[in-house]
Amino acid sequence: MSRDANQAVATPEGNPDPQPVSIRRNPLTTAVILAATFVVWTFLVFPAVWIFVGSFKTNETMFSATAFTFTLENYATIFRVGFGRFIFNSLFICLVAVVISTFVSVIASYVFSRKRFRRKRLLFGAVILGQLFPWIILVTPLFIMFARIGLLNSHAGMIFSYVAISIPFSVYLLVGYLETVPRELDEAAVMDGCSQFRIIWTIIFPVMLPGIVATATYAFLLMWTEFLFALAFLTRTSLKTMPLGLAQFFGEQSIDWGAIMAASAVTTLPALVLFLPLQTKLSAGLTAGSVKG
What we know:
Layout: H1 27-54, H2 73-80, H3 83-114, H4 120-129, H5 136-149, H6 155-178, H7 184-191, H8 196-207, H9 209-224, H10 228-233, H11 242-247, H12 257-275, H13 279-289
C-alpha cells in the first residue's frame, strides 16, 4: 500500500512518527563559527606542536624560522641527568593519590547525596570551602606539620597533600552526578538485602563511572602539574617530581632550551595517553556532574 511522501508514518500504536526537524543556518554564521573555531584550535594546538618540533632541534636552530638541524641529543640529555626518575616519582605519587582520593570522594559523595543527617548542608559547605582557598596559604602550616611528624622529603607527605586538595571538587562533582542517578536503584538493592558497602561498589559505582572517570582525570592532571607543594616539601633529588625536574633546566646564567622542549614533550605524553581514550566518558561525566538535579 503506497502513501504520500509528506504523510507521517504511523507507529504500531497508531501515533505518527515525529518528523525530523531541519535547522537552517545562515552560511555567513556558519563561516564565522568555523573561522572562530579554527583560530581557537590554532592557538591551542600550535604551542604543543612547537614544543614537539623544538624537542628535535639543536639550541642553535631552536628559534630559527628557516634552519632546522634534527637531533635526538635533547632526549638523551634529559634521561642522562635522571629525568626518568622524576617521571616515575610523579606517576607513583599521582596514581596512589588518585586512587585514595577517588575512593574517599565516592563514599563521601554517596553520603551527602543519599543520607540525611544533622548539619548536612553545613558540612557539605565546609568541604566545598576548601576549594576556595589559594594553595599558597597552605604551604606554611603544612610544612610545619610535616616537619613535626616526619613527612618532609617523603612521597607519603605529597600523597597526603594531593588527596587533600583534590577531594573538595571531586566530592562536589560526584554529588551533582549522583543526583542524576535514580534512587530506586538503592531502594531495590536494600529490599534485596544488599549491604551499604555492596550498594556503593557493585550497583552505584558502575552507573556513575563516567563521573568517576571525570573526577579521577581532573585529580590526576591537577597533581601531575603541581609545583608549589613539591618545591616546598621535597629537597632530595631522588624524590623530586617531574615539575621540579623540568625547572632544573632553567639555569641562572643559561637555559638549555633543547632539554626543556624534550622534557616538556615527555611530560605531556602520560596525560595525553590518559585523556584521549577517556575523552567520551570525561565529557559525559563533567556535563552530568556540573548541574544538580
